[in-house]
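ok new one. same drill as before - structure tokens go in, u give me an amino acid for every spot. 515 of them this time. try not to just spam alanines like last time pls lmao
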């Protein structure tokens, strides 16, 4: 059942929660906590301050905070105003931040006083930026175009500032992971984002006001904006925000037994098991873990559930689809290694990438998707939008298969496919086998050049601490589990697999090591 009643403007949710559970804690981090009542008042004041700065509906406002309660507060205030949220990672380089500011045409940057010098340098290169708002800045003595975040919160709120009522207008520009080139800014709407909450997080994950969620997801990802931020707000749950993922801190918090829900990416669950030793892990009230952002090996899924007793459900998401496309329902009917069936109310097909015709069940094809959660397009990139959206269908670039019961398994990416002498090889298939070999902590496969075959698989391996992985034994292991043409031609050892914050492998970085 899709909970349609949840799909309404953020401002309405804020006012409703302030009235019905105003004294309940909404969000908490290591330094700050905020109730639903205070969240409604403070976001109303910030929205009014944006109005007084001349920010109109549709204008872009950048957030350059660490993941924290103030990040969420600023995000919801921007949406209330009807403006567009442009998240910029607090750890972004100058070039990365500059690109996002220029590409989005942001008019205001909201950040911290410790970033003042950097922002002064950046805004000198971006004419669109008119005002900088800094948290922790003294209100007196600052230039007129630099405002104190705290002083803005001291102003009275105006009901006229709430203009984020158009559910289909862009409310977010969330940048893709950029695994192959310059990130693209996906335009996402309140309807699309809240539809995922209503069709996925509530009916499938069971998110409710009884939940106390722990999140270490970077808040500039669609996955984090949709589940820990909007999902918490619309259901009246409580969420503890970690500034960044630390396996030691995450284990400490989970061991407290307070939390009921933990969303993450596959690498987080992998490192929790490594750090947690060899025995069982007891996480108290934890009822469910959710993995998205990258393919989760079935071996990791099984091992995590065996050691914790907590269901870990896998799903497939994309920035362009406001986060989720599929999610496994908790319960015994799951297919390990699958990312689950499509979320409720969404159309999904597997098609031949060349002909765009549907492939038979069980055959590999490109996964394409259509639904209310699909983005209207990329910001200021009509050519890229036309390639990604065809007749209302979003072309994911993921290769996948349906099983007879509708469960989807991702087999690779179109651009990552290795073609060895005419044979197609999906890196994920090799990686799944490698992770079963004793001593292998992490791995990734890329295409290496070959004089006669064109491409061959090359495996990069991270060994477990204190373990030695024998190349010959590993190759023999592959020979027992894979066809000959899929066995890696070369095995290299590396300290760490380069990944995006969402867990996607940066294969182009590994390919550089082959040059």
């Amino acid at each position: 059942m899709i909970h349609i009643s949840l799909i309404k403007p953020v401002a309405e949710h804020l006012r409703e929660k302030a009235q019905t559970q105003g004294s309940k804690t909404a969000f908490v981090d290591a330094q700050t906590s905020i109730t639903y009542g205070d969240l409604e008042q403070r976001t109303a004041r910030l929205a009014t301050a944006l109005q007084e700065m001349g920010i109109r509906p549709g204008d872009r406002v950048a957030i350059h905070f660490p993941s924290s309660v103030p990040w969420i507060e600023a995000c919801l205030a921007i949406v209330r105003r009807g403006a567009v949220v442009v998240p910029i990672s607090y750890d972004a380089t100058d070039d990365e931040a500059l690109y996002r500011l220029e590409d989005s045409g942001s008019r205001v940057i909201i950040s911290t006083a410790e970033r003042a010098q950097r922002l002064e340098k950046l805004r000198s290169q971006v004419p669109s930026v008119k005002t900088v708002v800094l948290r922790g800045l003294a209100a007196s003595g600052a230039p007129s175009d630099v405002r104190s975040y705290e002083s803005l919160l001291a102003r009275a709120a105006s009901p006229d500032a709430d203009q984020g009522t158009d559910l289909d207008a862009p409310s977010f520009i969330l940048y893709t992971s950029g695994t192959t080139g310059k990130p693209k800014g996906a335009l996402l709407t309140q309807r699309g984002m809240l539809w995922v909450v209503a069709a996925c997080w509530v009916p499938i994950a069971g998110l409710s006001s009884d939940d106390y969620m722990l999140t270490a997801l970077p808040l500039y990802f669609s996955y984090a904006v949709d589940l820990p931020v909007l999902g918490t707000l619309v259901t009246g749950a409580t969420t503890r925000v970690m500034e960044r993922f630390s396996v030691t801190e995450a284990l400490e918090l989970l061991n407290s037994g307070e939390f009921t829900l933990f969303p993450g990416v596959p690498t987080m669950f992998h490192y929790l098991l490594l750090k947690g030793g060899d025995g069982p892990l007891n996480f108290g009230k934890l009822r469910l873990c959710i993995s998205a952002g990258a393919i989760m090996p079935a071996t990791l899924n099984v091992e995590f559930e065996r050691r914790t007793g907590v269901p870990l459900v896998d799903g497939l998401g994309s920035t362009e689809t406001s986060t989720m496309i599929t999610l496994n329902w908790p319960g015994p009917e799951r297919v390990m290694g699958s990312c689950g069936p499509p979320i409720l109310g969404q159309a999904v097909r597997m098609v031949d990438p060349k002909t765009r015709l549907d492939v038979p069940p069980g055959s590999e094809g490109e996964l394409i998707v259509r639904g209310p959660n699909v983005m209207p397009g990329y910001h200021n990139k009509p050519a890229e939008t036309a390639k990604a959206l065809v007749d209302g269908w979003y072309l994911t670039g993921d290769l996948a298969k349906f099983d007879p019961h509708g469960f989807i398994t991702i087999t690779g990416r179109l651009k990552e496919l290795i073609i060895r002498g005419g044979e197609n090889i999906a890196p994920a298939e090799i990686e799944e086998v490698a992770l079963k070999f004793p001593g292998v902590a992490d791995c990734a496969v890329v295409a290496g050049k070959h004089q006669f075959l064109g491409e061959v698989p090359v495996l990069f391996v991270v060994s477990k601490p204190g373990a030695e992985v024998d190349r010959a034994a590993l190759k023999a292991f592959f020979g027992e589990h894979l066809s000959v043409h899929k066995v890696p031609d070369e095995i290299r050892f590396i300290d760490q697999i380069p990944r995006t914050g969402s867990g996607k492998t940066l294969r182009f970085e590994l390919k550089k090591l082959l040059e």
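The two ends are 52 Å apart (CA to CA). and btw The mean pLDDT is 92.
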